[in-house]
């Protein structure tokens, strides 16, 4: 056996004595250690570079996050995201305090028709449980958007009078059942502020002299709208 092992040794190994073999082995281990140390340094540098990139290159603000999606920070783009059910963009807009806004009309002291229509459109056509969750989570709406009984004036014509029923129907239409849409509208509009507004406006409707309306059909529409609002006020807002 010893003769066979000896015959298998390389010429270089045969020429080395025991001391020289030990020295060569130490040199080999030193080389391996140096290579391992270099690889460790490279790995540390790579990890640091990746960490730096994550810290400094990851979008931080909602504006930067939207930019990575190719979307600019505008109200029109927020509405477009709601309309197209782009819930990722809606979440970023809402996080950045973009809101469904109300621009008050100087004549009626309510939201102007354009902005009031946005909530109606969202609730009826654009609604999505995920975007609704983001709107509620970040308060991305103006409570003044919630419809209340309109203020009546003796000289009002059909558009203003028919608006009494129209505004009440926002609630009768969207509060049907116990689904996500109903829950959204309830949480959005059944607030202390809106309950006070509904109570004040309903009292004004009740006190309004409908005989001042100069056409019988106007008077009839007024009574119908007032009764619808009484039902909504009692069932939705607890106002009687």
Overall mean confidence score, pLDDT = 83
Order of helices and strands: HHHHHHHHHHHH
Tell me, briefly, the overall form: rod-shaped
How many domains comprise the coordinates?
A: 3
Distance between the termini: 110 Å
Largest sheet: none
Q: Please tally the β strands and state the result.
A: 0
Helical fraction equals 55-70%
Which structural class should the secondary elements be placed in?
mainly alpha
Quaternary class: single chain
Strand content: under 5%
How many helices? 12
Low-confidence stretches: 1-10, 51-56
Report the radius of gyration as a whole number of Å. 37 Å
Compact summary:
The chain has 240 residues and is an all-alpha fold.
Blueprint of the fold:
Elements: H1 2-8, H2 11-15, H3 18-57, H4 62-68, H5 75-83, H6 87-95, H7 113-126, H8 129-138, H9 158-174, H10 180-189, H11 192-207, H12 216-236
Helix pairs in contact: 4-6, 6-8, 8-10, 9-12, 11-12
Report what the structure shows.
With 240 residues, this protein is an all-alpha fold. The chain has three domains: 56 residues, no CATH class; 83 residues, no CATH class; 95 residues, no CATH class. 69% of the residues lie in helices and 0% in strands. The protein contains twelve helices and no strands. The protein is rod-shaped. It starts with a helix and ends with a helix. The N terminus is likely disordered.
